[in-house]
Design a protein that fits this description.
CATH class: Alpha Beta
Family: Belongs to the Ntn-hydrolase family.
EC number: 3.5.1.26
Number of helices: 9
Protein name: N(4)-(Beta-N-acetylglucosaminyl)-L-asparaginase
Largest sheet: 8 strands, mixed
Helix content: 25-40%
Function: Cleaves the GlcNAc-Asn bond which joins oligosaccharides to the peptide of asparagine-linked glycoproteins.
GO molecular function: N4-(beta-N-acetylglucosaminyl)-L-asparaginase activity; peptidase activity
C-alpha cells in the first residue's frame, strides 16, 4: 500500500517525460538538431559538446532560413551570424556577433570561450580570429539570400528597421539622414512577423545535472549592418547555471534583450519556480511593456523538468519546441499555448 502511494505521489510531483536526465531541449521543431545533440550525449560527449553539435547541425541545414549561411541578408545583402555557448558549471561564456565568412558560428563561439579570456568577439575581428583558429572562410551568400535581397531592393528597401530618418532624394535606399519630425516616418512594422527572425536555442543536461546552453542565428532579415540581437548576449539569448538550470530565448531580439529573459527565468527557477512558471513570468515581464512583441522562451531545471512560454500575437498563438530524454530516447515535439 505504501509503495503504491509513493509511486502515485511521485507521478504527480514528477510527471512522465519531464524529470528524466539526460535531457536536450531546443526551440522550434528542429528535430535533426535535437537528435544530433542527443546522440552526442549518448555517446559520452559533454553537455557543451551536445549544444555545439546540435546548433552546428542547424547551421549546416540552414534551419528555417534563420540559422546559418544563406539567410537573413542585411541592408548590404550580406549574411552575418551570431552565436553563444555557456558552461553552467564554470559560468564561462563564448560568443560571436556580426560574424562574417564563417559558417560554424557556434564553433567559433566555443573557441572564444576555450581559447581566450574574453566573452564576446564581434565583426571583422571575430572573423579574423576564427580564421586564425583554423575555421574555413567561405561565402555565406546563396542564390536564396541574394534573391531575398534583390526583391527587397525592388520594393524600395521596405520593410526596414530605421526610424526618424529619410533617404537621399536621389536614392531609394539611403544613405539616410536624420529626420526632424516623426510624422513622415516610412517603415513597415515587423514585430509580429514570425518569419522575419528566429533562432535555435538549445539546453542540454547530463545525468549529473550539469548544464550548458547555446544559440545560433543569422539575425534579422534586412537588419541595419552591424546589428546584434539577443542571441549572443549573456542572459538574453541564453543563460545556464548548473546550480539552478538553463533557459534560452527566440524572437524579437531587439526587444527581448532589454529584459534579460533567460537570466530572469534561471533565477526564478533558483528561487523555486517550476520551469513553465519561470518562462511565463519572463515573457510577461516583456509583455507589460511591448504587448505585441514576437517571442518565446524555453526553460529546464537541474532535475530535468522543462517548460516553455510565448507571447500571443496574430499568427502566433502556439509555440513548438523539441525535447529528447531517456523517457523517449527520440526527439519529440512539444507545444505550448501562448499567453
Amino acid at each position: 500500500m505504501f509503495v503504491s502511494l509513493l509511486v502515485s505521489a511521485l507521478s504527480v510531483l514528477c510527471p512522465l517525460g519531464q524529470t528524466s536526465l539526460p535531457l536536450v531541449v531546443n526551440t522550434w521543431p528542429f528535430k535533426n538538431a535535437t537528435a544530433a545533440a542527443w546522440r552526442t550525449l549518448q555517446s559520452g560527449g559533454s553537455v557543451l559538446d551536445a549544444v555545439e553539435m546540435g546548433c552546428a547541425c542547424c547551421e549546416m541545414e540552414q534551419c528555417d532560413g534563420s540559422v546559418g549561411y544563406g539567410g537573413s541578408p542585411d541592408e548590404y545583402g550580406e549574411t552575418t551570424l551570431d552565436a553563444m555557448i555557456m558552461n553552467g558549471n564554470t559560468m564561462e561564456v563564448g560568443a560571436v556577433a556580426d560574424l562574417r565568412r564563417i559558417k560554424n558560428a557556434i564553433g567559433v563561439a566555443r573557441a572564444v570561450m576555450e581559447r581566450t579570456d574574453h566573452t564576446l568577439l564581434v565583426g571583422e575581428s571575430a572573423s579574423v580570429f576564427a580564421e586564425n583558429m583554423g575555421f574555413i572562410a567561405e561565402d555565406l551568400t546563396t542564390n536564396k539570400s541574394l534573391n531575398i535581397f534583390t526583391q527587397w531592393l525592388k520594393g524600395n528597401c521596405q520593410p526596414n528597421y530605421r526610424k526618424n530618418v529619410f533617404p537621399d532624394p536621389s536614392m531609394s535606399c539611403g544613405p539616410y539622414k536624420p529626420k526632424a519630425t516623426l510624422n513622415q516616418r516610412k517603415r513597415v512594422a515587423q514585430h509580429a512577423n514570425t518569419r522575419s527572425h528566429d533562432t535555435i536555442g538549445m539546453v542540454a543536461l547530463d545525468q549529473n545535472g550539469h548544464v550548458a546552453a547555446g544559440t545560433s542565428t543569422n539575425g534579422l532579415t534586412h537588419k541595419v549592418p552591424g546589428r546584434v540581437g539577443d542571441s549572443p548576449i549573456v542572459g538574453a539569448g541564453a543563460y545556464a547555471d548548473s546550480s539552478a538550470g538553463a533557459a534560452t530565448a527566440t524572437g524579437d531580439g531587439d526587444v527581448m534583450m532589454r529584459f534579460l529573459p533567460s537570466y530572469l527565468a534561471v533565477e526564478l527557477m533558483r528561487a523555486g519556480a517550476d520551469p513553465s512558471a519561470a518562462c511565463k513570468t519572463a515573457i510577461s515581464r516583456i509583455k507589460r511593456h511591448y504587448s505585441d512583441f514576437f517571442g518565446a522562451i524555453i526553460c529546464a531545471n537541474t532535475t530535468g523538468h522543462f517548460g516553455a512560454a510565448c507571447n500571443k500575437v496574430p499568427g502566433f498563438s502556439q509555440f513548438h519546441y523539441m525535447v529528447s530524454n531517456s523517457e523517449s530516447d527520440t526527439p519529440l515535439m512539444k507545444s505550448v499555448d501562448c499567453i
